[in-house]
Each structure stands twice: as C-alpha cells, then as structure tokens.
TrEMBL record, chain A:
Residues 84-172 form the GINS subunit domain. Belongs to the GINS3/PSF3 family. PANTHER family: DNA REPLICATION COMPLEX GINS PROTEIN PSF3. This is DNA replication complex GINS protein PSF3. One of its GO terms (cellular component) is GINS complex. It comes from the Eukaryota. The lineage of its organism: Eukaryota, Metazoa, Ecdysozoa, Arthropoda, Hexapoda. Residues 9-60 form the DNA replication complex GINS protein PSF3 N-terminal domain. InterPro entries: GINS_A, GINS_bundle-like_dom_sf, GINS_Psf3, GINS_Psf3_sf, PSF3_N. Keywords: DNA replication, Nucleus. One of its GO terms (biological process) is mitotic DNA replication initiation. It is found in: Nucleus.
TrEMBL record, chain B:
Component of the GINS complex. Residues 66-167 form the GINS subunit domain. It comes from Bemisia tabaci. Residues 2-62 form the DNA replication complex GINS protein PSF2 N-terminal domain. GO terms for cellular component: CMG complex; GINS complex. InterPro entries: GINS_A, GINS_bundle-like_dom_sf, GINS_Psf2, PSF2_N. Residues 169-195 are annotated as: Disordered. Residues 182-195 have a biased composition (Polar residues). CDD domains: GINS_A_psf2, GINS_B_Psf2. This is DNA replication complex GINS protein PSF2.
C-alpha cells in the first residue's frame, strides 16, 4: 500500500507540494521578478503579495534573511480549523483542497509556528471522517460517486476497500468457481512473451 | 485476501462422509492419510474430497453437528445478548455452510431456515465489528482485543482498517520512516529552483 509513503518521485507528494500559499515578500529578492506577472523589473520588490506553490516557498523560508512571510492556505487557516473541529464530515475536500492530508503532512513538517496544531487537526479530522468513508465503502458499489467530498487519500482508501467489499458480496451471492491468478502474474507472463519475441 | 482463497483454506477442514464404494488401501497425502473407505462406514475426509465424491454420487455427507436450526438459534441469541463476539461453532462457519448448501443441499434438514439464521448471525457480527472499528478509530488507544472472529470476518475489514491505521500513524509521525522526507522535497525544490 503506497498511501502513506512518500518518496522523491511520488506523484501525490509532488502534486501536493504544488498547492499554493499566500506569501508576502519583506525584502527584495533578485532575479525572481518572473514570479510576479505585474513586475516591471527582474527583481521582486518588498511588500509584493503573491500566491506561490509550497515548494518554492519552502526554499525561500530557509534562506537566512527570510525574505518572505507566509499565511496558511484557506483549508488550514483558523476558521477552517474551527470548522473541522465542529464537524469535519461536511467539508468538501474535493473543492477545498484535493490533497488535504498529503499537503497537511508537508505543512506539519515544515516547522511553521502552526505546525503542531495542523498535525493535531489532521489526525482528528481523519478520525472524524473515517465513519463517512467507511460507510460509503461498505455500502456503495460504484466507483464514481454523485457527490463526494473525499480528498485523494480518502478516495484511494475508499476504492481499495470498496473493491474488497464487492468481492465479498459476490462471493456471498454467487460464489466463485475457481481462484483467479493475481493480475500481476497474468501480466508477468505477457511481458515475458514480448521479451521472447524480441 | 480474496474470499475465494479463504474458502480454499476452509476446504482443508475434515468432515464425515459415508462412502458408497470400497477402497481397501489408504491414500497418502501431504496433509495426512485418508481412508480406507468401506461402503456404509463413516470416515473423516477433507471437505474438498467430500465435495468431489458427493458430486460424483460416491458418498453421502454427514452434516456437521452444529448445522441445525436449534444450535444456530441458540448461538444467535448468545450473540445478540453478548456485547462481545461469541465463539462460533466452526472457524469457517460461513464458508463451510456455503459449500455444503451448494453440493449437499439434499441432505441438510430445513436448509432454508439454517441459511436465514446463519445470515442473521453474520449480519449481527458484522454490525458489531463495524461499530467496534468506529469506536477504535475514534479512540486514542493503539490496541483492541477481538476474540472469536473468523477469518472471513477479519478479511471483510481488510484493507480498510490496516490502511486507515497506517494513515493515522503517518499523520502522527513527524517524519516519514525513511526520515528523508523533508530533505527530499527540499532537494526537489532547489533543483527546480535552479533551472
């Protein structure tokens, strides 16, 4: 299961670190003018406000003179943290933040001043929403849901457990005549043949 | 795990049959010796063999003792009363009964009633299991003890439960297990930055 492992080429992780955050520059940064569409010079002037992806901000934040200050993105600000603690199940992650958990994990590790709070919130939110994902996966058989509020990680969890549930239901109603070979083994043979033909 | 694989495991259980043929020598198998078969004398064989012989009309299957309406009704009542899971008569009760219903339906008395009671027991246990999983995830404890669950029941919450626990523990951790998560995304950032 790859849900919670991140590595260098992990697409989820890369996409998640593309989530933008509002940032304000406090000092002039040379050569970064291209980031600001309204900039006239090659440099970024102080007090410029920009929505920048997290991966670039992470580097800027680690510079010794700290040329930027960041605000938390909408999904993680104080208002939304309150909403999550009230009732996490009503939040639509599909609209709000598609990579809520992965991005949240990155933020929690980024050593911002809100990091500990975000970390606590992530765990609580997941626990609260577990019931929602669990019920759906046990009782719905279609992959596409009419309205779903799940973020990517929850969706993957939903899909995995839904397929297991469908298989169990199938076994209950009609049974299974012969055990099927795992798809990996079937594909493995195919690959071998192509190698052989070459 | 696929339910079919669990059914396969359940087929290794022994069951009594009354053969309709004679075979004087024993059959030596890795899982144990079977036979000899004397017509009319009960003998213990694995379920897979019993089913095969039954399909070829070579034997009658002796229905397991627990598979009758009274015993199962009693189990069902116990299950309803108890807050926890009660011990089932057989650790593969669903699979065994399924297989026997399919092949030896003619030898089981009141088969439709048994089927209903078994389904009731299954539903009771599943709702209990779901409720306790919900409780377990919401609580902060790291361990839960669930006795007397059968393999098929355990499998019904895979992969959901282990994956959810994985996610929770990864959210709670400061670093990924390889400990390089931060430095890696930092590397990625700086290399993109350089271009």
């Amino acid at each position: 299961m790859k849900l919670c492992r991140s590595h260098y080429f992990d697409l989820e992780d890369i996409l998640a670190s593309h989530e933008t955050m509002p940032a304000t520059f406090t000092e002039e940064v040379k050569g970064l003018g291209f980031l600001d569409p309204g900039a006239v010079t090659d440099n970024i002037t102080p007090k410029t406000k920009l929505e920048l992806p997290f991966w670039i901000l992470q580097v800027l934040l680690q510079l010794p003179n700290k040329p930027v200050t960041v605000e938390l993105p909408k999904a993680f600000n104080a208002t939304h943290r309150d909403i999550f603690s009230a009732d996490a199940c009503i939040v639509d992650f599909n609209k709000l933040c598609k990579f809520f958990y992965t991005f949240g994990k990155i933020l929690a590790r980024a050593k911002l001043k809100e990091s500990p709070e975000i970390k606590k919130m992530l765990v609580e939110t997941f626990k609260q929403r577990f019931r929602y994902v669990f019920d759906l996966s046990q009782n719905v058989e279609t992959e596409k849901l009419a309205s779903d509020k799940m973020d990517r990680m929850e969706r993957e969890l939903y899909n995995e457990s839904r397929t297991a549930q469908v298989r169990l239901n199938q076994w209950m109603s009609v049974g299974i005549g012969t055990i099927q070979a795992a798809s990996m083994i079937v594909n493995h043979r195919k690959r071998k043949l192509t190698v052989f033909e070459l | 795990m696929d339910p079919a694989e669990i059914e396969f495991l359940a087929e290794k259980q022994l069951i009594s049959i009354i053969p309709k043929f004679n075979l004087n020598h024993t059959i030596h198998l890795i899982s144990g010796d079977i036979g000899p078969f004397r017509s009319g004398i009960p003998v213990r064989v694995p379920i897979w063999l019993a089913i095969n012989l039954k399909q070829r009309q070579k034997c009658n299957i002796v229905v397991p003792e627990w598979m009758n309406v009274e015993t199962l009704e009693e189990r069902k009542e116990n299950e309803k009363q108890s807050e926890f899971f009660t011990k089932m008569p057989n650790e593969h009760y669903m699979e065994v009964s399924r297989m026997l219903f399919e092949t030896a339906g003619d030898e089981i008395q009141k088969i439709d009633e048994i089927r209903t009671v078994l389904k009731d027991i299954w539903d009771l246990r599943m709702s209990k299991l779901k409720a306790s999983i919900n409780k377990f995830i919401k609580s902060d404890t790291g361990i839960a003890q669930l006795d007397h669950l059968t393999q098929l029941e355990i499998n019904s919450v895979r992969p959901l439960l282990p994956d959810s626990l994985n996610i929770i523990s990864s959210l709670e951790k400061d670093q990924d297990s390889d400990g390089e998560d931060n430095s890696q995304s930092q590397n990625r950032a700086s290399s993109s930055f350089a271009q």
